[in-house]
Amino acid sequence: MSRQIDRRTFMAGFGAAAAAAGLPSTSAVAQTPAPNAAPVAPMETVTVTPDLVAAAKREGAVMVRYAAPVEVMTPVAQAFTREFGISVRLDRKAGSLGNQLFATESRAGRHIMDVAWITDPLGLKRLGDEGFYLRWTPANLPSLLPPGTYMEGLGYCPFWTDIIIPYNPDVVPPRKAREIFKTWHGFLDPDLAGRIGLVDPAATNAAFVTYMMFFELPQYGREFFEKLGAQRPRLYRGTAGGRDDLASGAIGTFVPAQEFGAFHQFLQGDKTAWAYPDIAPSLAINHISISRNAPNAAAARLFAAWVFTDAGARAMQDAQTRPTIIGVPERRSAVAQLAKTDWWQPRPTDASWVPNFDHWNNAYPTLMPEMRRMLGWRG
Amino acid sequence: MSIAEAVTGPVPTARSTLTERIEGWLGWLAPWILFAVVAALVVGPLGALVYGALRSDSPGAPGAHFTFAEVASVYQGLFTDGWSGRATINSLLLAVPVTILSTTVGVALAYLVARTDMPGRRTFEFLFLLPMLYSPLVGVIGWSVLADPHAGLLNFLLEAIGGRDARVLNVYSWAGIIWVMTFYFVPYAFLLNIGAFRAMDPALEEAASISGANLFRRIVFVTVPMMLASIAASAIFIFTLSLEQFSIPGFLGSQMRLDTLAYSIYQQTNMFPANLPGAAAAGTLLLFISAFSLWGYRRMTKRAEKFVTVTARGYKPAETALGRLRLVAFLFALAVFVLGAALPLLAVVLRSLMPVRTTRLNMTNLNLDHYLFIYNADNIQLSLFNSLTLAAGGATICAAAGFIIAVAVVRGRKRKATALTDYLVALPISLPGTVFGVGMLWAYVYTPLYLTVWLLLIAFVIRYTVYGVRAFSAGIMQIDRALEEAAVVSGASPTRSFLFVDLPLLKPVLVSMWLMAFLIVIRELSASVILYSPESVTLPILTWTYLSDGFYGVASALSVVQLILVGLVVIIFKALFGADVRTRSKD
């Protein structure tokens, strides 16, 4: 089946990316060219230069398709426009839809999108192999971004999606929460039966990868996930519903909750608190890619390159996300305010679990349906 | 034989009324021309979907080849407990009770408003439409706030009255989902039937009354059978839309691990990686179910003359005096309004005023921040303009196209081309909007219309013209042809005959139909979320964007704004046309 071939293709590409990034690769065909691959174009280094800025300003606009959260995308786009006077046409396409549209358009010879900022690494790799995405890299990549945050030549993630354990203090008393949520085993507390929210693993990458962590780490494993399913969790089609229900007290805790989402809610006055367990996923799943046939070629390159500058990182921090760029100082306003509370502790630096894309890709076809079955879905 | 023919004897056939002239055009070649036009619009996206269902990968993808694997997998699943089988059963288990309940309630309300002296009926006529002014997700938000088993406001109220055990409401259950869906579809049944009730000659009801039949017997044995075409049309619609509806069971059903066919299809289009051939293959399953229900409808209404209720005899649509039942009717209508619209709406208004959701409601925290956010948002004006123009344009085209097709279908039922047209025009509505959107995408990507506001308009017209066809079909079936023939015999030109005979008689249907199409288009989301671009963004898309990112307060505020604006349009529309309809029908 072609979809299986695509997965191998994907693995091959990621094998190469992982090798370049210093990640261990489990793919036996890591260096094998993809069967349907377009001739490999030379890698283009994209940086912010006066010439590029001038050309981009002449184009005047850039069209960005994004699946990143709107609270991230909007301030980043506004900051870019403020700096260069170039308008950003934002086209929200959630999930894998952005890549579907791009594939349909590109195969038909229609070129509409300039930049993709999407959460579909598999689709990204595949369309890269078809030659629809530009082979590009920010300058000085090894010293700019850590391993696991990019698919070299194709997509680069500008911020981390850090997973936390949130809790509603009215349902889980803070003292107890701080104790039981030192590890994920706290979810098995009998008092939480029926008061846990989980996102359908088929609905978001963040959910699937978080559950995958349980399967991969020996201290949790399959048994832990089975027990989690036995807690009669509420299941959600996306994180939004879970966050809202958590704030209302309909549930006491929720997986996967993202740190920057919690920061936003905290700034709005939400009383939901959270804990950083012994280990939690740090995901880099919102990749920025450039269409090879971008109608606004200069503006597309400028936007993509600018996001990985200090100004771009600052815009990312204004959106309360943690930039992936190495060495950026902490400047998030939520952190400053949280530091004044008596319950918040900064995220431990050694508590991140970064998924291996090969494992992820290999496991998804069988593990995702299995996860759903373990959570009570039939069929 | 029609009632008029029974009373006055055969009327000389004249072939020059406008509807008959249309019929004349349609005599031999025209049905096929009409069929070709409809086919040109419908076959594009549907053909692309069928093509996609028979591919191993998305059309155009390298290495994709023809295969029956996806189709076989979906249909095999029906008999082997696969995902499609379970999801289909779940969909039917929801659609059947929802159709029965919402049609029953909607028809009852339409009868009470149009044919009785129930107090407050004019006000209710507007109030019943309120759920049609906002997205189905508003109902989901509203009822989640009200009837969550742990945090629902109504449950808190019940707890305060009867203790913790009194918290019995649970919107995340079969009953909860059927409840929310029923109230979502009641306005459809109401709007699809009220025009026909208004146009109905009360002669037979009066005759039954004179013969001693009480109100119940009159309704059961006279009114309902006469209205069967209209009731059946609305029931078929609601059944089809219930099957296609994915957001209500999708959001509420996940907590009980309930997958419906429509949601599963949506999931296929959004999973990683997307399985578009699988989604398209499953979409064909819904097409078959819909075609089967349409076949049932055509059989039920096979003899159009059975439903003639507007005859050549002059009549005055009298109101049925309910007597002591007036209060009961009023309380019933009030209960439907409160449960179906007021309560969830109140919850959404409340949510729009809450900066963040909290465990216990704190009224002192309420503010207008979410409305200020909307006011300052960049694309609100554009989305508003797009929504209003698309809704008005779409409704008008659907009405015009629906009328032409309805005339052909009703007056030319025995022609193969019109029967095919009837089937064809109904197919797009049976597909989940997302899948239909993918089909439109594949069909139009090579054209300059791609991702423009015009593509949305075409999509809406293809998808919703069937409303016009059904509404006008039921209306035309009610009109005795002798009326047109009498006008022609009296020397009226075809245009005058159409303008002064057909149109006034069909005007209640036209008004209801246009309004319904307007309201459906203005909140359409599932297809447009695939087909929109930054320039063709609509209000429901903005709401969806905020909702899916967890900005429930902003999404609620947007819904309230949409409700107010669309409500104003409806009020103006009713002021211009609604009162006129009532006056004329009474005179």
Structure description:
Chain A has 379 residues and is of the alpha/beta class. Chain A has two domains: 2-158 and 286-329, D-Maltodextrin-Binding Protein, domain 2 (3-Layer(aba) Sandwich); 162-283 and 344-361, D-Maltodextrin-Binding Protein, domain 2. Chain A has helices at residues 2-21, 50-59, 70-84, 97-107, 121-129, 141-144, 174-180, 205-216, 221-230, 239-248, 259-267, 297-307, 310-318, 333-338, 357-374; strands at residues 44-46, 61-66, 87-92, 115-118, 136-138, 150-151, 155-156, 159-167, 196-199, 234-236, 253-255, 257-258, 273-275, 280-283, 287-290, 322-323, 352-353. Chain A is globular and about 60 Å long. Helices cover 42% and strands 16% of the residues of chain A. Chain A is built from 15 helices and 17 strands. In chain A, strands 8, 12, 13, 14, 16 and 17 form a six-stranded mixed beta sheet that branches. A four-stranded mixed beta sheet of chain A has the order 3-2-4-15. Chain A has a three-stranded parallel beta sheet with strand order 10-9-11, covered by helices on one side. In chain B, helix 3 (30-53) crosses helix 20 and helix 16 (325-353) runs antiparallel to helix 26. Chain B has 26 helices and no strands. The model of chain B is unreliable at 1-15 and 579-587 (pLDDT under 50). In chain B, 58% of the residues are buried. Chain B has helices at residues 3-8, 18-25, 30-53, 69-77, 83-115, 121-127, 136-147, 153-162, 174-199, 203-210, 215-226, 228-244, 247-253, 261-270, 276-300, 325-353, 369-376, 380-411, 416-430, 433-444, 453-478, 481-489, 494-522, 528-531, 539-548, 552-586. With 587 residues, chain B is mainly α. Chain B has one domain (3-311, 320-361, 371-586): MetI-like fold. Chains A and B meet through helix 1, strand 3, helix 4, helix 5 and strand 10 of A and helix 5, helix 14, helix 20 and helix 25 of B.
